Amino acid sequence: MPVNKRGRKSRPGSAADTPMHQDPREGEPLASFKTSGITNLYSVAKPFKNAEYKSGRRWKNLKQVVAQEQADSDWPVDFPAYWAIDAPPSLAPQKKYCDITGLPAKYTDPKTNVRYHSAEVYQIVRTLPPGAEQQYLALRNASVTLK
Predict the structure, then answer these.
(1) Mean pLDDT of all residues in 130-145
(2) Would you place residue 116 in the very low, low, confident or very high pLDDT band (cuts 50, 70, 90)?
(3) Can you state the percent helix, strand and coil of the chain, rounding each to 5?
(4) In angstroms, rounded to a whole number, what is the distance separating the alpha carbons of residues 122 and 110?
(5) Rounded distance, CA 124 to CA 101, Å?
(6) How many whole angstroms separate alpha carbon 4 and alpha carbon 50?
(7) d(CA 147, CA 129)
(8) Which pTM value belongs to this model?
(9) CA distance 5 to 20
């Protein structure tokens, strides 16, 4: 086995097997390129690039994609598709928010049914003038009218 710079054995076929004086770029189209001089890269042949290549792909917006898929579809009418999603109602309970601040409400005032977030907001609820709590309840369609 060949020995590398550090004195360790290296595998056959590894980088240590190649002689150091050999130019790895020989035989390539860019073999004339040297770091010491500037070469015109437009004059060098580039076999990986085809000037006559034209992409057959055309960009479509979402409206065109949806219209094409609706026209091409052989699916039944009730089959779920991304342009007509009907979801069942959620099984999770509805979130409750504070009527004063809009933050998540942990508490409800038993006297007025106004929801509040913290003890600081509760002090504001207790100092509301008569009829103001009905206006807050009306904002969330929970107002109670006594007959």
Answers:
(1) 84
(2) very high
(3) 20, 5, 75
(4) 11
(5) 11
(6) 42
(7) 21
(8) 0.41
(9) 12
CB-count exposure of residue 55 (10 Å: 0-12, 13-18, 19+): exposed
pLDDT at residue number 47: 75
DSSP 10-79: --TTSGGGS-TTS-TTTTSTTTT--TTS---TTSS--TT--TT---------HHHHHHHHHHH--S-TTS
Question: What single-letter amino acid sits at 81?
Answer: A
For 64-114, the pLDDT digits (tens) are 888 888 787 777 767 766 666 667 788 999 999 999 999 999 999 999 899
* The residue type at 89: P
Q: Is 69 left (phi over 0), alpha (psi -120 to 50) or beta?
A: alpha
Residue 69, both tokens: 């898929």
Residue 68: how many CB atoms within 10 A of its CB?
11
CA separation, residue 147 to residues 138, 144 (Å): 17, 10
Which helix (DSSP H) or strand (DSSP E) does residue 107 occupy? strand 107-108
